[in-house]
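Milestone 3.1: sequence recovery, worked example.
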């Protein structure tokens, strides 16, 4: 069913859309969907989340996107960007818009990859595509690339008195940053390949070793996110135990970066923050957990809007 166009394109007022290009999920300020793309030359039988672009058909959320330090090595993240735009415009009841993208990269990769990722997102001045049955026309006004993790707390820096450690746990990476006296410390930023996917692999290996069973990843994800699932106690215990070991590993890595709960507060953000909340052992008075999976995307939008305001309304 097509969407009625309510707002025509206004080149002087672009729509700012923040997108968190995760390895497990793509997040916008209002939506979250699996980071997966299955491409077809002919229209597939099942059309749920079907995106049509450039004469090809893409099922969004299908298959699993492997971890890659370079997100620009193929067209997948561009296609996922179009899907994210489509979802956000659908919420706004628009099918045509001038869009300014606000995205992010891991803390220690921003300096090296910022320009190339921006060029990747801006590879076309316009894009015409069909998503979930609606036709979209997008004109790109520009793009900003910010450090992920930090963006989720950028509007709350006044709370970061004293010495603080920020830990952003994603699907592929874990990013660590010090924020001292309300200011980020550029020299104390670290990125590790210790995202929640590492926990998923450990759980699968544990279940295969103990019970010779391979269970659906959606069940593991449910336990990770909610702490429980409708499965037998032995499987639930095995998953919980492995998740607890993974979270203990997070704190070991934080201590390697001089984390001391008596001297600093810890702020945990990202999709993996729910694991710390569900399986971690910590002082709740000194560890603040933001388990809003869309927090980074919202932060990108806020930073882009702030930049627009400083530039006199020009993004």
């Amino acid at each position: 069913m097509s969407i009625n166009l309510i707002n025509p394109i206004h080149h002087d007022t672009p729509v700012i859309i923040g997108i968190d290009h995760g390895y497990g999920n793509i997040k916008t300020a209002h939506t979250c969907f699996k980071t997966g793309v299955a491409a077809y030359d002919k229209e597939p039988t099942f059309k749920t989340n079907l995106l049509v672009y450039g004469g090809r058909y893409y099922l969004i959320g299908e298959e699993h996107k492997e971890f890659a330090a370079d997100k620009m090595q193929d067209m997948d993240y561009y296609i996922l960007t179009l899907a994210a735009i489509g979802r956000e415009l659908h919420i706004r009841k628009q099918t045509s818009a001038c869009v300014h993208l606000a995205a992010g990269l891991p803390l220690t990769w921003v300096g090296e990859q910022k320009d190339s990722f921006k060029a990747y997102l801006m590879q076309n001045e316009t894009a015409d595509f069909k998503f979930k049955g609606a036709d979209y026309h997008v004109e790109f006004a520009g793009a900003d690339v910010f450090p992920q993790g930090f963006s989720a707390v950028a509007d709350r820096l006044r709370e970061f008195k004293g010495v603080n450690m920020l830990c952003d746990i994603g699907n592929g990476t874990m990013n660590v940053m010090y924020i001292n006296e309300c200011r980020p410390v550029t020299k104390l930023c670290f990125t590790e390949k210790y995202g929640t996917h590492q926990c998923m692999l450990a759980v699968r290996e544990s279940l295969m070793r103990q019970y010779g069973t391979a269970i659906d990843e959606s069940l593991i994800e449910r336990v990770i996110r909610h702490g429980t699932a409708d499965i037998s106690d032995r499987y639930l215990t095995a998953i919980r135990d492995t998740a607890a070991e993974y979270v203990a590993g997070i704190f070991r890595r934080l201590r390697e970066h001089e984390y001391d709960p008596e001297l600093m507060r810890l702020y945990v953000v990202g999709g993996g923050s729910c694991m710390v909340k569900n399986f971690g052992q910590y002082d709740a008075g000194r560890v603040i957990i933001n388990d809003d999976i869309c927090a980074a995307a919202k932060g990108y939008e806020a930073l882009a809007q702030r930049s627009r305001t400083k530039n006199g309304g020009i993004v």
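The chain has two domains: 15-149+297-310, 155-196+227-289. The helical segments are 76-91, 110-121, 196-211, 217-226, 233-256, 273-279, 295-310.
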